[in-house]
Structure formats: C-alpha cells, structure tokens
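To assess whether ligand presence alters the predicted conformation, the chain was also submitted together with flavin-adenine dinucleotide. Input:
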Amino acid sequence: MHSVFDARRFLIPFRSSLLPQIFTDTLVIGGGVAGLRAALAAAQHGEVIVLAKGDFKHTNTAWAQGGVATVLDPQDTIESHVQDTLVAGADACDESIVRLVVEQGPRRIEEMFGWGMRVDRDQGGKVLLGREGGHAAHRIIHAGGDATGAEVQRVLLERVKQTAGIRVFANCFALDLITPNDSEGSPVMGAITHHPKFGLQMIWARSTILAAGGSGVLFRETTNPPQATADGLAMAYRAGALLADMAYMQFHPTTLYLAGASRSLITEAIRGAGAYLLDEAKNRFMIGVHPMAELAPRDIVSQAIVRQLARQGGGKVYLDCRHIEGINERFLGFAELLKKFDLNAQTDLIPIHPAAHYMVGGVKTDASARTNVPGLLAAGEVASTGLHGANRLASNSLLEGLVFGAIAGEAAADGWNGSRSLPRPGPVSIVSDIRPSDRGELDLTDVRSSLRSAMWKNVGIERTGAKLQGVAEMIDFWGRYTLDKIFDEPFGWETQNMLLVGAVMARAALWREESRGCHLRLDFPQRRPEFAKQDVWGKGKR
Ligand SMILES: Cc1cc2nc3c(=O)[nH]c(=O)nc-3n(C[C@H](O)[C@H](O)[C@H](O)COP(=O)(O)OP(=O)(O)OC[C@H]3O[C@@H](n4cnc5c(N)ncnc54)[C@H](O)[C@@H]3O)c2cc1C
C-alpha cells in the first residue's frame, strides 16, 4: 500500500454532542444512478436517507448521453459483452466482477422498463439497440436519442420519492464519514453534513453507502458537471478506506471547445454516423493513425488530437459533419447545443478538444460493494470494483451503477441482518479539535484553478515521470498551506478534497511506469507485466 501526505482526519473542528442528530438505518451519499438504485434496495430492509450536495438533477448520471450497454438482442451473448469489457480493460479487469455485472445487467434494465423508463424503440415497439466503439454487438439502449442519463435519473428519482421509508435531502453536503476513533478497523457510523439552512448535522446510520460520483473537475478540461470534485474519494481516504487504480482517468476526445460552452461532450455516435476530424488546414488527420480512423478507441483519438495540436503549435481541430445528411434531425441535443453558440453542424465546422471524462479508479470494493472499512460500502463512479480494469468500455458505467447500486443496497442490511427490530446503536461522542492555521488568508479560487491547470498539463492525456514528479511536489506544497485551513462552505471543502485526490492521482500515475488502457506514459510506452496489478492507496499505519 502507498500513502500520500498525512491527511487530517476531519475537514472541520466539531463536537458531535453539540450538533443536531439524525438517525437512519442506511445513509446513501450521492443521488445519481448508483445512489438512487442503492436507496431503493436498502429501503427493503429499513429506513434510508439519500443525500446530494446540489439538487438531484445535476449529476454525471443526468448528463450521460450515449446509453446503457446490456445484452438484450438474441444475436448477442453475455460472453461477447464480457470479452469486449475485458479487452477494453487492457488485462486489468477482475473477470469475476465483469461476469457478475454483465450477467445481472439485463435483469436490472428490465426492472427499469417496469418502473417506466422510456427508451427508443422501433415502430413495432422493439427496443432499438445501438453499437458503440469497442462493442462487438448492438447492445446500447438509448432514450430520447442522446438523453439516456436524464431518463435514468428521472425514473429512479420518481421511484425513490414514491418509496416509503426513503428521505431525500437535497443541498446537503457530506463533509466527512464519521468513525468513533482514528484507529484501523474503526467502523463508519454515518456522516457529518452541512445544509445551507440547517447548518452542520450528524447523520448516524448502521450502514453508509458512498455513491458520490466522479472527479473530472480536478482537470481544467472536463465533461463532468461542477459537482464532480472527488469528495467521496477524499472522505473515504480520510476515514481509512483504500483507493485503487488511481492513475486511470479516461479522457473523452470530443467536447465542444468554445468559450462559455463548459466543454459539453459531443457523443461518439456522431463519429459513428460518419463525422471527420480535421486539423487546422482542414485535413483529416486520423487517417494513418489507426485503421479505424475517426472510429479508433477513445484514447487513441484523444492522444492523436493532443499530438496534432502540438504539431500545429496550438490552434484548432474540428469535427466535420457537413456531409452527413439530416445530422441536426438525428442528433437533436447536439443541434440544440450548437444553436446556443450560433453554429449549425450541417454548415459549420465544430471546434473540439479532449477532456477528462470518467474516473476509472476509486474506493476499492469487493463483489458485495464492501470497502475495507466496516460499515462503509461504495458503488458507482466513486468505487473501484474491478469492472473497468485500466479503461472503461463505453456505456458500461450506467450499467455498473444499476448493478452495484442494487448490490450495495442489499449488502448494507447484512451487517445488522436487515432486522428492523434491532435497536440502532446510539451515537458516540466524537470530538475533532483542529486548531485554526496561523498562515493567513488564501485565494481559494486561485488554488483551485492552479490545481486544475496543473492536473491537465501534467496528469493529462500524455504523462512523463519528470512532469508527474514535479506536479506531485507542487500539490504537496499547495497542500501544506491549504489543507491546514478551516473553511466554512463547500467551495473550500471541495478544494481541499481535490488537492488530496490530485496528490494521490499524480503519485499513482508516477508509480505506474508503463502505458496501459487510458494511462499513457511517454517515457514507458509499453504495457509491462509487472504492473498488471492494482495499486492501492491509503492513509498508512494510523
Ligand atoms: C457528459 C457525460 C456523458 C456520459 N455518458 C455516459 C453514457 O452514455 N453511458 C454511460 O454508461 N456512462 C456515461 N457517463 C458516465 C456516467 O454518467 C457516470 O459514470 C455515472 O452516471 C456515475 O453515476 P454515480 O451515481 O456514480 O455518480 P453521479 O451520477 O455523478 O452522482 C453523484 C452524486 O453524489 C453527490 N455528491 C457528490 N459529492 C457529495 C458530497 N460531498 N455530499 C453530498 N453529495 C455529494 C452529487 O450531488 C450527486 O448526487 C457520462 C458522463 C458524463 C459526464
């Protein structure tokens, strides 16, 4: 196990006995696909609180465009989906987990249909199954063309709201998981949270499921919504949970690159429909890079774009859809997005750029979604189950959220045998007595934007040992005078979380002296068998 700088146990000072106390059986931190699905499963066994730091609409889940991969076509097989996932994972997947997710997928999707998920169907009512890069068969379910995630979010949220025993807390920021003390094996008993109206609160739970999503915001360029600040990874680390495979951040090749466009993702399906990538001189630069040209795997395309930009000394690369008949009618969300910027895909070239997209690594879990810390489970993008290995196959993450959300919700009740009659353990007294730093004021916005730029430049698509070493030292330095401060609102807490997780990512990428999946080291361009294993990060001996 590896460690980074000694993280403080809690972000803020508090005395648990002086704060309002809330009790539940299962606390779910995160209201995306994984958290909502977990809440539904846990509600079969007791009371549940599910919380989100913003409203329940702004999640990575709601932004997902491509779809959900699962085997529904009689021509397709479970084995084929398993093999495609293993290939994408670059010899680093846990095959038993891949089988578990792929096998349980169809059941979870049928369940979603039963709960009212409206997916794209042909005139005869048959589900239309798309095909994406890396998939050998048609197995991608879409809703509203490119609005699949929003439909998943809608269906699960409605179901959660209709389910007795689930309380939903919006705008409720989880600062830290609570454990009675800081020794190894100390169980998680809930979380300390902050709500703009109710202030700090202690939420005590028999089991806690972390489903706090991804980390894209650590990078200057990202497809993720602003909530994806790695809070879940940071609070798990502080509570003693192990993080695994932290070098693996997947980059998406095509986001809209315009001032004010928030790096909106342009779905792969548009390249699937025949769009070209053009350099500044309007030539197709993917020809000769890969036999599949623009349809090469995501990482190859992202890397080629970065190299092309370097070759032409900056400037722009474009997506060209002008030759695709009916492009605006086929991709309504895309057409709407462009319209906001006075662009039309039928007549204009679209400036694009790669961006950080999906955090493959995460809190290490087993097949029951359990972490190494008693009472703490994790599911969704925050978790590292072993499904994705060194790279995620397109559309496998919503599937993972549904499957592992359900597993985590079921497993949450195991610890107390799902018995509603057992009395809940009473709260213990927890005192966090951090002294305020005497190092003075800080421009937090500057710290955050410096970190995001440094991560993009040095822990981005192309990495080298020298750059990684430099950025790891730089983050340690920023950490020294930022992590000892006490903040009283989410922007500060998020920035502290981002610094901690950035430090782990940079070190994990430095340690992995090979290129595998989405991790490209220019100084170690080959896959090396001695690195065909998970690297695990934790607080070390406490
Ligand atoms: C633009 C885009 C397109 C994508 N397209 C696809 C696709 O087509 N198919 C696919 O399979 N995957 C896709 N993905 C990836 C997929 O959407 C995510 O991996 C998945 O939705 C993650 O779900 P989740 O439940 O783990 O997290 P999220 O959906 O991100 O939910 C995280 C939740 O945690 C909450 N949270 C975070 N921190 C805190 C805190 N401190 N306190 C309280 N709450 C907190 C958030 O408020 C949120 O409710 C896409 C991602 C993006 C960004």
